[in-house]
Write a structure and sequence with these properties.
The chain has 185 residues and is mainly alpha-helical. The strands form 2 sheets. A 3-stranded antiparallel beta sheet has the order 1-3-2. Strands 4-5 form a two-stranded antiparallel ribbon. The chain is 55% helix and 10% strand. A hairpin with a 5-residue loop joins strand 2 and strand 3.
């Protein structure tokens, strides 16, 4: 079998085409995001711009509506940073993403996170998350009330790593800033 070599230009164009950046596409925001796997969303506005750049008939209200209906979610995902992802993919790939989130916990917190009783923290957090839609700051304080000797940032990060949490609107919507209210995914 003959070996085929791509030129740098062919490789570049292939990557741009895969990322839907060679021309606007005729597809909806959910299908586009699933094709891309996820869109980086540390700040809420870039996914809107990313979809507008890629999709022929995209309007800002479409994504806001999808976030409000939870067809799309903004959640800690790839590299444990916030990404926009379809709700279906969030559920489908959570077990794949989970090991990276746990490595992030160990990497970011080292000794401060080494002695965490994850099962206990999750059992403390679940009822709180079910009766509230707290910010990560409120979750930290709640966990610290129960485990005052432990690092509150590490505890909240551990819960965020073990429970599939998603941000709820208006968090993650255009112009809303980075207010971070969470709910179970």
């Amino acid at each position: 079998m003959a070996e085929t070599r791509l030129t740098l230009r062919q490789l570049n164009r292939t990557l741009l085409a895969r990322q839907m950046l060679m021309g606007r596409q005729d597809m909806g925001p959910v299908a586009a995001t699933e094709h891309l796997i996820a869109l980086q969303s540390q700040i809420p506005n870039p996914p809107y711009i990313g979809l507008w750049t890629r999709l022929r008939d995209f309007e800002r209200g479409q994504l806001t509506e999808l976030l409000e209906s939870r067809a799309m979610v903004r959640a800690p995902w790839i590299r444990s940073t916030l990404h926009l992802v379809s709700a279906a993919d969030h559920q489908r790939f959570q077990s794949v993403i989970q090991p990276a989130l746990l490595r992030g916990l160990r990497s970011f917190f080292g000794a401060r996170g080494a002695d965490l009783d994850i099962e206990r923290l999750v059992s403390i957090a679940k009822p709180f998350l079910e009766s509230n839609q707290p910010s990560i700051g409120a979750l930290r304080l709640h966990l610290q009330d129960h485990e005052p000797q432990l690092n509150k940032e590490a505890m909240a990060y551990a819960v965020r790593s073990y429970l599939p949490l998603v941000q709820i609107p208006p968090s993650g919507t255009w112009g809303a800033g980075t207010r971070d209210l969470y709910d179970r995914g």
